[in-house]
Design a protein that fits this description.
Outer membrane phospholipase (ompla), Chain C
Length: 307
């Protein structure tokens, strides 16, 4: 509960700041499509020759980020869509394998019908998120050579949430969707759950929580619960924007008190049309994956293009 309250308080501060901004500069929504996208490439590199005595290891890192929104409005109907793609890699000279630093593919879609010209809508939402390439755990063999063990694959795991609910929408940059009847599906590759027919092995696998919650010899897990999806984006300064994305989910069928949390904060500082500095922070709590917070932070300066 403390974890939930902390992230709700964090998001609420951003929520209130955006509400104040909208109150002072709200524009009338027009019918039709409104589209906006941004793609950025962050790259860093360092090299040292054999004679360098100051310490250091040659390395490189790169990160590609794409965000795209396509929203449609017609009378009292609104359809909001957002695509998020984030992929990063790094490698140092003494590592045999390249490592992922980020890997995210997410689609959000909300269809709403306005209620009595208010900020409230009847809604139906869909959220799909996954990763695009394999993930590994790295180690060493008896000879000290680097090894890696595949733990995830492209689209394994993949998460799909969908259901009806109620949407409160102040603007495209400020909204909350609540769905008390959310169906959630977790899809995985059978290579990670194929245990065979030995019952003792099956029981041990399932008692350990399975693979991202999916039981032995299965490739899908179904859950039914409640979800909250919130979005707030505002300007800290004229050239600095702050984006907040919060997703909460509780499974009615098993341990409803263990709420899944996915919070992302993105700060974009625009230098000029082509150069930006980006700060990204993401915190995930999902006890089907690991019973602790997963934290990711990235900072970089690179090329960007808006469209």
């Amino acid at each position: 509960m403390k974890k939930i309250l902390f992230f709700l308080a964090l998001f609420s501060s951003a929520f209130m700041m955006q509400a104040q901004e909208d109150a002072s500069s709200e524009e009338e929504n027009k019918d039709g499509w409104s589209k906006e996208g941004n793609i950025s490439l962050l790259f860093s590199q360092a090299a040292f020759n054999a004679e360098w005595t100051g310490g250091g290891t040659s390395n490189y890192a790169a990160n590609l980020n794409l965000s795209y929104t396509a929203n449609y409005k017609s009378g009292d109907w609104a359809w909001d869509n957002r695509l998020l793609v984030d992929y990063g890699i790094s490698k140092t000279r003494d590592q045999e394998f390249t490592r992922k630093t980020s890997d995210r593919f997410e689609i959000n879609s909300i269809l709403g019908k306005q209620i009595n010209e208010s900020n409230w809508y009847y809604s139906y939402f869909l959220n799909f998120k996954t990763q695009m390439t394999s993930g590994y755990v790295f180690g060493e063999d008896a000879n000290g050579n680097e090894t890696r063990t595949e733990t995830t694959k492209a689209f394994s795991p993949a998460y799909l949430q969908t259901g009806p609910g109620a949407l409160w929408k102040k603007s495209d940059n400020l909204f909350v969707n609540i769905s008390p009847a959310t169906a959630k599906f977790i899809f995985v590759n059978g290579d990670f759950t194929d245990i065979g027919s030995d019952q003792a092995s099956i029981d041990a696998f399932n008692e350990a929580g399975g693979y991202f919650g999916v039981e032995a010899n299965e490739t899908m897990r179904f859950e039914f619960g409640a979800s909250l999806n919130a979005y707030a984006k505002f300007k800290i300064m004229e050239n600095i924007s702050f984006e907040n994305i919060l997703n909460l989910y509780s499974n009615y069928l098993e341990d409803p008190q263990n709420v899944d949390i996915d919070y992302t904060a993105n700060v974009v500082m625009t230098v000029n049309k082509w150069i930006t500095a980006n700060v990204a922070f993401q915190a995930i709590y999902d006890d089907n994956a690991v019973q602790a917070f997963q934290i990711r932070e990235a900072l970089g300066v690179g090329l960007t293009y808006g469209f």
